[in-house]
Amino acid sequence: MTTRHRLVALVGAACLALATGPVALGAGPAAASAVPTCRPSQVRVTTGVAEGAAGTIYVPLVFTDRGAACALWGVPSVQAVTATRHPVGPPARNDSIGQMPVRHVLRRGQSVASAFGVAETGNYPANLCHARRAWGVRVRLGGFAGPSYVRLGISVCTSQASTHVQLVVPGRTGVPTS
Length: 178
Fold this sequence. Notes:
Blueprint lengths: L2 H18 L2 E2 L4 H5 L9 E5 L3 E3 L2 E10 L4 E3 L4 E5 L11 E2 L8 E4 L4 E9 L6 H4 L1 E11 L3 E13 L5 E3 L3 E2 L8
Parallel strand pairs: 1-8, 7-12
Antiparallel strand pairs: 2-4, 3-4, 4-9, 5-8, 6-10, 9-12, 9-13, 10-11
C-alpha cells in the first residue's frame, strides 16, 4: 500500500469516527448510530447562567431537543448582532481547534451547551478594540441548529475578536465534566 493510499484510508477512518464516534447522553453505540441528526426545527437555543472569570464573562449557549431523539456535535458559530440582525465585529473564535467533537444523542428535553466567552472590552486599548454594544448573538451549530437569534446585551470589539466559543458538552453549563 502506498503512502497516498494509507493517507486516504486514514482520512476515511477519521470521517467514519466523527460520524459514529463516542456517544453522550444516549444508549449504546449500535442504537446511537440509528438515531438521525437533529434538525434546526427541533433544537431550541437559549442561554444559561453567566459566570465571570479574569475579565471574561462566560455565557452557556444551551441547545435543547424539542422533538424525537436526535444527534448533534461540534462548535457553534456565534456572531454578535444588532437588533436588526446585522453583524457587530468579527465572529467568535473557536477555542476547540484540534479537539475531537463528541456525537451527542439527545432525547426530548435533554440539552448540551457550549461555553461562549465575552471578554471585557475595557481590557483592550480603545484604538485597537473600537467597542460597540450588541443586541444579542446569532447562533448556528452545523446543520443541527440555527440560525437562532438570542437576546444577550454585550459589548464587543469591532476591530478584533473579543468573543470565543467551545465544543458542545453534555448539560446546560458548557463546562466539560471529567
